[in-house]
Predict the structure.
Amino acid sequence: MRLRLTLAFLLMGFSFTILQTVFVRELLVSFSGNELSIGLVLGAWLLLEALGSGVAGRILRFARLQPAAYAALQLLLALLLLPAFWAALQVRAVLGTVPGEAIGPLPALAGALFSLAPLGLVDGAMFAVACAVLQTASDQARERESSRVYILEATGSILGGVAFTFLLLPVLSSTQFLFLIAALNTGCAAALLAGPPRTPAAAGVSALLAVAALLTAGTPLGMALHQRLVSARWAPSPLAYEANSPYGNVAVLREANQVTVLSNGTPVLTAPDPDIAAVEQETHLPLLFLDRPPKRILVIGGGAGGVLGELLRYPVERIDYAELDPLLIRVLRIVPTPLTEAELSDPRVALAIADGRRFVASMVRSPDRPTYDFILVNLPYPSTLVVNRLYTEEFYQQVERLLAPEGVLAVPAPAGRTYRAPALRELLACYQRTLLQVFPYVRAVPGDEITLWLAARRPFTLSAEDLVHRWEVRGLETRMLRPEHLRYLFDPEVAAAFEESLGDTQVVANRDVYPAGLRYGLAYESAILSPQLEPFFHWLGRLRGWHLGLGLVGLLLIGLFALRRPETLVPPAIATTGVVGMATDLLVLFAFQLRYGYVYQQVGLLVTAFMAGLALGGLSMRTWIGKGRLRTPWTALVALEAATVLSMGLLAGLLAFLLRRSAPAHPLEPLLLYGINLLGGVLVGMEFPLGTQLLIAQGDPGVRAASSLYAWDLAGATLGAVSVSAILLPALGLLQTALLVALLKGVSLAWLGSRYRALSSR
């Protein structure tokens, strides 16, 4: 039975790593998500786990449970998977939104709690029940058995992350993953129920469920069911195609002859009838400032589906088109339209499947560095780190080196011709301020569809009538642009009012180390989707690191006064370590995004690195405790706290190095990021068994001690997930966030240090 329990607890970690990754990915698509969505989804999951573990631990603190109790939770988990997945896919319908419509932070949090509640609560309860079952079945010390469950879960998480990323992801859909997890858990439940005390009927039913789930996962039935489920997510629009790539989810909706392509739930292309007014403005207007038709053009993102077609009407020699996701181009060949076929088959279009930022850097370093008459950065406004890195001062410095002496850079932004709410003014002013850090001349063309920012090395001196004359000489036939429309767009009174409205706005430039554009983008998005959050983002704009530093000083003083007994010092130490662990995980993930432009496929591997450290740290500490080598546990806890502070300082140093590094990403950089995540996991893993031993030494029952500390750990991780993604990252950037989290851990260290003399004598 001991072997069966070991496998069952390994399966717990294996299952929840895969489930967490699957649900985060699917909810990101449902929410058209960004880093804020990642934090909210993870925060919701961890909060539910903490509640499940804390409540179950209190109920079971003196209970003696048989393996059948754990098997019952495994069966419950298996039965909940499909309903929870359906809820994650249908969360848009529950929230009253349609496919492609963005979802605000508060509805996203509510949707995450709605879809994850059953799984999160069961996950947390399973840990508490596992501790009780193992303690009943063993005669070893209570802290040894509690830490054993923790280590086995972490080890299972490693196996789950590796299996998900390298073995299963290329061949299984999300629905097939769920049936595989259901098969493993029901099969394991059957094995536990078949052992003493035997329950043959329940074991037989569990075995039949396992066989049925395994057959569904491994046959075309599972894929067919997946297609039915994901098609329902996009209803009422008919789904023509959906697939995942390393960069995200791509779905194609077709109604009559119109095709809409969505990337991670966000519309990125509509053909053959795009938003023609916006397309014509962002292509033809900048070219009016060129004295001659362009010869060479660079388009970064959003080229297919109209933009390339308009640019190809000029006598260009070459258009370099950089698109990150090869799947986006492949679906245009699978579900073609006459417009996209003509664009992508034109020999003048040189398609580069590459991240726009890395493509620009490679062109700058090229011995035969090209220069472009026109560069168009055709991307959504910066509401994610991946997009924001293509709007920073550092990126524009690279772009400027590729621009011909008389060339023009064009950057579309949200429309702001008439009413400009405060959030929109700040976003547009951030565009302007950042461009002015690099280019001497910047001009806005405020329209009803878009605001078009133009930047160049020479002034934009042409009047509206001069531009109309050039347009008439070129003789291009367009659907929307006409001489009267040009006069409307270049009205000098409108331009003056636009400039005046931005002149009163206090903003900072967007930089890699301080992604201000992300904060302004999120504030603008929330003003549209969740207006009740506008005061929050206004406060966020005024937040500075020293404000939070003062808050930490206050927290330090409160703790020095309130935390006097030994048993009150351990939970805050574990909770702040949970904050550090989650902050490390998220900051490494976001740094990976900044350097490489994607993270969708790396989520499982990054989590695996952290969980590997967790298992290694927990096993090391458990071994030292078991062999009696840990003679001064309170001293060990203080040392671990100090090491955790240093690890966050090390992460801050690594982030400073990477964010200021203009050279292309080195092959060793991912190893550094995985390594720092591994180190964070080791320190978190070492502290849990040590904290459990200290609480048990104070007279706390073993199950309650382990479950309550597990809940404190998860509560800290919840705080880390939400605060880093929703507050610290947009307000302070990656580097200051890492330093602030290090200071938070320093507060916990100071609490322990202030009682060190009394504690070390115990």
Remarks:
- The chain is about 65% helix and 10% strand.
- The mean pLDDT is 88.
- Residues 702-754 form the longest helix (53 residues).
